[in-house]
Design a protein that fits this description.
globular; alpha/beta; 13 helices; 308 residues; 8 strands; 8-stranded parallel beta barrel
Amino acid sequence: MLGPVILAASRSDKMRRFVSAAPGTKQVVARFIAGESVDQVVPIIVDAADKGLEVTLDVVGEDITTVEQSHAARDAYLELIARLKDLGLGTKAEMSVKLSMFGQALEGGHELALANVRPVVEAAAAIGTTVTLDAEDHTTLDSMFAIHDALREDFPQTGCVIQAYLFRTEADARRLAANGSRVRIVKGAYKEPAEVAYQNKAEIDKAYVRILRILMEGEGYPMIGSHDPRLISIAQELARRAGRKLDEYEFQMLYGIRSDEHLRLAAEGHRMRVYTAYGTDWYGYFMRRLAEKPANLLFFARSILTKD
């Protein structure tokens, strides 16, 4: 019941100011956000590579209001890619981008977002890696999928994300599974109305399994975004039934959550990718992590009561 309340708070400037000023916030944010700059996140990429893990990097900050900010977001990813090239880490790290950060919600936003994300995808391809387009709220998805299709004409390895709680997603999965896409499936972390999305956890889990089966039986490359032990076990079984080898799908989990499971799956020979967010505009990302799991909220509540 708290999840929708927290998601609503993620759009509140008043709550943003309160949470940012709380004495324990910095400690909790550090659990989910790898750092504020490229320099701070590079050692984390190297450490992950040494442990047999891969990463996908998200420069947080989707709530932009100007064209200039969208260009700054583009440039932040280009800076990241340049550093990965210099360090020879291109094949160990990909990028995840939210098109809202590239201007999708602004006037002429579809064309602006495509123009901003294309050089990022091109630069990523040049160093041997790729980009995945994150899914946001349901009103943005037609634009996201259209941009995904446009990018794949030149960069077929470009990935996208689908969300199990949306009614539309089974149809999206069938289309994507048939054409060799890289598709990350997640439960969904935005506040969506009952007209377009399942509201009950059990229904969302059932939809997740149905959609995952479609992806596993298709021709694409499934990326299983979940920390749920039951869903991870089901994914392994569906992959076995579909005759998939260990390098024909991967697991993805968030930085700071179930780190022991990251290592366990990698040790079993699975491809394990850690979704690693960094940057200064962390609020929206952070609040969605709190909404996803009550234990995260309790951890934060205890921390804000602690004086420095």
